Amino acid sequence: MPPRTPPVRRAAHHNGKTKDYRVEYKLILAYSRLLPQRPAYNRREASGDPPIDWPRLLRLAGRHGLLPLMTRSLGLCPIAGQPRDLEKTLADKVKPGLGRAIRHAAELIRVAGALETAGVPVLSLKGPLEAVRIYGDIGLRPVRDIDLYVRPADAGRAGRLLGGLGYRPLVPEIAARLGRAWIAPGQAPFRNASAATALDLHWRLAETSRPLFDMDRAISLRTERSFEGARLHTLPDEARFLHLCQHGSSHGWSRLIWLCDIAEILRNGDTGDAGRIRSLARASGQERGLLLACHLAATLLDAPLPAALADALQPDGGIGDMARRITRDGDRDAAPDRPDTLAARYRSLRRQLWLQDGVSARAGLLWRRLLPAARDLAGKGPQPVPVALLRRMIRLLALPLRRTP
Asked: What global pTM score does this model have?
C-alpha cells in the first residue's frame, strides 16, 4: 500500500499580491519555476502593466540566480512580444554557468569519495547535489562552490586531505585552526586553481547560537543519496529542509533562487514529516525563520504547504512586515545595500536578531558575531584567542568608517 500523502493547504493568510511590484519582478516570479505560469502574463496587455524593460528583466534574473530557470521557462512558454534574440541571449549567459556546475559536480564526487575512503565522514549540502535533487538538471541552478560538512574533530585532517587533492585555503592562517569553536561561522574557504573550483569546509551546521544539530549528531543521522552514479551523504529530509530555510533567512532571502528551492521542495512533497520540521525548528530556536520561508514561498511562488506548516502561519505582523521588506528589496535593480556600510550591517544584525526565538538565542548570536571569521586571521600569524577577539571587534567598528567609491 503506497504511503499516505500528507494533507496540503494554502497558507490561510496567503494573498499573493504583487501589484506593487514592477512587471519585470512579476515575470521572474512567474517564470522561475519548473512549471511557469503562462496565462497571467501572455495577457499582459489586459493587465494594465507598463511595457517590459527587457534589459532590466535580464539584470534582475541574473542578480537572483534565475537565468537558467528563466531560459527553460521562456522556451516552454514564450512571453508575448519578447525580443526575437532573447532566448539566444539567455543561452549565451547561462552557458558558462553550466560548465562551472559540471566541474563542481565532478569535484564533489571526487573529494567526498576521497574523504570517505580516508575515514572522514562528510555531509554534502546545497550546491550540485541540491541542483539535481530539486530540479532534476544540474544546469537549472547556479553552482558557485561545494559545501562539505565534517565533525570538528575531523576538520584538521579533512583540511590536510584537501591539500593533497589540490585545494588550498584562501586564508593560509586558517589551516592550523580548522575545527576551532571560536572561529565563526565554523567554516573555511578553499580553492583548487587547476580545477577552477571553490569549496567551503564547514564544522558547524549554522552560525546560530543553537544549530539544528551539533556535527557529531548530524553525521550520525546522515542518509545516502544517489548522485551521478555515486553515493553521497546528506541530512534527512526534515533537517535538510530546515537547514535550507535557515540558510536563506540568514542571508535575508537576497537571492530568489534560494526561495525557488524551498518552493520546488514543497511542490515535490520532499519535505519529510512537517510536524517534525516544526519540532526541530522550535528546539533550535529557528521557528521564525521556518515560518518566514514558508510565508514567502506561499505568497510569492504559490507553493503548497503541508497542513502542519500552513496551520502555523497565523496572521503575524512581524513575519508579514519582514516578508514585505524582503520582497521590496528583491524588486530593486541592485542589491539593496553595500555589505560594508553601517546601515547594511545594522539591518543585517537586526534581521538576524529578529529571526532568533528567545533572549538566549539572541544573546548567543551577538556573541558569535564577535568571534573572528577566517578573513580576520589573514596575515596575522599565530595569535591567542583574546587577541583575535579584539581584532575582530576593531574590524567590525572600523569597517563602516572606510571610504567607499
From this structure: 0.83
